[in-house]
Amino acid sequence: MTAPLHEARPSGPGRALPDTQQGMRRRNLARVLHALRAEGPLSRAAVASRIGLTRAAVSTLVDELIRSGLLEELGPERPGRVGRPGSALAVSGRGPAGIGAEVGVDHLAVCAVDLRGTTRARAIRQGANRDRSPEPVLAELTELIRQVVAEAEGEGLWPAGLAVAVPGLVARDARTVVRAPNLGWHDTDLGTLLPAGLPLTVDNEANFGALAELWLGEDTPRDFLHVSAEIGIGAAVVVDGGLLRGTRGFAGELGHVPVRPDGPECPCGGRGCLEQYAGEEAVLRAAGLEPGEDRVGLLAGRAAQGDENVRRALRDAGTAFGVALTGAVNLLDPESVVLGGELSGLAPWLLPSLRDELARRTAGPVCPVSVSGLGPEGPLLGAAHSVVRAVLDDPAAVAGQA
Amino acid sequence: MTAPLHEARPSGPGRALPDTQQGMRRRNLARVLHALRAEGPLSRAAVASRIGLTRAAVSTLVDELIRSGLLEELGPERPGRVGRPGSALAVSGRGPAGIGAEVGVDHLAVCAVDLRGTTRARAIRQGANRDRSPEPVLAELTELIRQVVAEAEGEGLWPAGLAVAVPGLVARDARTVVRAPNLGWHDTDLGTLLPAGLPLTVDNEANFGALAELWLGEDTPRDFLHVSAEIGIGAAVVVDGGLLRGTRGFAGELGHVPVRPDGPECPCGGRGCLEQYAGEEAVLRAAGLEPGEDRVGLLAGRAAQGDENVRRALRDAGTAFGVALTGAVNLLDPESVVLGGELSGLAPWLLPSLRDELARRTAGPVCPVSVSGLGPEGPLLGAAHSVVRAVLDDPAAVAGQA
DNA sequence: GCTATTTCGTCATGCCGATTTACAAATTAG
DNA sequence: CTAATTTGTAAATCGGCATGACGAAATAGC
Lengths: 402, 402
Prior knowledge:
By secondary structure, the first copy, chain A, is of the alpha/beta class. Chain A contains twelve helices and 15 strands. About 1% of the residues of chain A have low confidence.
């Protein structure tokens, strides 16, 4: 017999709902929905046995979810077993949709994802946004959003919320961009510049990328470190299936972990931060290349061609990553480290030295480092799916908004 | 309107209980207890308004808690206000007690804490345990435990559980000491060597120290980093009022965060780890002192006397701490950093350079660094209180075990 | 001093949500 | 064709809190 370990606990489905009978019902609605989303079409009886409720209880929950358009009855199952066949239920493909949007440095993207997790509509517009003022950029984005929403509505979906990924720091109100250096934005309230009437969430690209990895990655654990390099170098810390944001929302600043305490000065005030060794600018300089458009593509291209200067620069960056990640892994003991976003394109040349350095500095089993399979799509998908998750976690909140 | 931020959520009272009507009741029992513990004697009506239930509901909850001996009715309040005076309720001082124990390198300690949080019995035995085998040490500890339990029982308390703090790594089963270098123990199951019949939890000294800080410290935030140096240098990461343990339970290894990537070799396999600069051994060497008993006391004494070698050694250690903590703060964005355990005795000479270094490397507001007020008692108190918290978080689990 | 007012604790009642029990429907096994 | 098995639903029950009413015990005002 053991007393409980006092430890941080997960968010889990609907854990924020009030602790009342109504809250319990809402959590049970969420459990039914989650079970059906995770394990394909199931009968009421199958759902009941999976989530530990009775068939009767599940029946009423399912009724409610069907009435709100979140579930569909597919009809009788073709059984190989004895007994009356169940009626298959599935998450609706014509219910609420999560609208995800991304403001990139040189593109805008929007997509719509349904409850099943499939992308049903998308729109992308290339074009440099660096140092354009927010108004025209967001007007363009609004136009794309309208397009995607219209397309989704054409397929019987209705938008349940909008989540926007931006390459910068976002205030905890999830609306205001505090600072986006690569866009030149600061203290911009996106709430007033985007379509009203849709619940809005704005968050850092890196955070959405990590969530995408958590929700869509194959075999992604519930505790990992997601490293990306869009605006500087950022890491998202995922603990027990939730993002660790920090008191001010600034957690994950891997780029300013000291690698060499007496290294070159960094605009952050420190010296020898990881960004001074592995940041985009530093790597370009070390490789002898000029900064310009599509810098990551340039690096990857040259490295693939065998340019030894570029390869050395990337190797050294990997080593610096290894040092910084050693610290992070020692502090957090994550199950794995995932390289995401633009970094995944450079992984072939970064990874060997990174892994080497990490292994050299670790006594026991080495924390595995992998590359995200989502590529540059991560943040956009994470944004759209965050809306979908919100619906799955509390279906009652959106029921009847159709 | 904003969609929810996907983030790690707190444990909170009884969040692990099942999501059923009974679970709800158990959580409400916990809420009543927590309210009474936090805000002194209160009437039923006062409790009701505080936790958001009706007087009627609180009445039945209180009845149950009184029947199980967790609450006491103190009798009518002397009111200055109009209306019938309430009957004051208070957490019982004669109910369950948490038994905390500590296996130190040169002492054993046990204490009993009641639901009110007051220490009601204690026993300490000095004596070096370094490299003694577990059996005799735990036999001695068992003897102390029996003493303390007997004393507590004399005051009408009954032991609800035993929590043991050890200077080493503990497996996630919370019973087995994987490795305690300073004791020379490894893979020792304490469950078989301690009094049976009591729910047992074993954990790292540093973790219990951090929990003590969380529960007993003044103005301690719910997100902080607790640094201690008993076995090497460890940090406990507290997120939203819960410990972050990591996948294998190894989170918080601040001692092996690289400070200088090419620094001296470390037994961990790395180079230039914090421990090579700020570990006990390193500091003693830098100060020109021989290792022996009570090394921390020796350092503090010499420093207080003005020994410049010792002071310089501690200053340098503080600087190294500053570098490592810069990394940690950038990754975790805690509300504060607390120096606890033995470190608190050396704080006067460590802090200035530590704060300097941290400030130098930080652009915005600097993360405040403070010293624990609990001193070396932290881990022992944390252990005892962890049992008490377990009771407060789920009173129904222990009701009727008296 | 007496009454009105206010607040407290408790009871009876009702509501909500899940469980239990029972049963009709739909299938397979023999 | 019957027995067995499983599904989905309806009716009754139970657990838990809310609501509303009431007596009890204090103060406030006359």
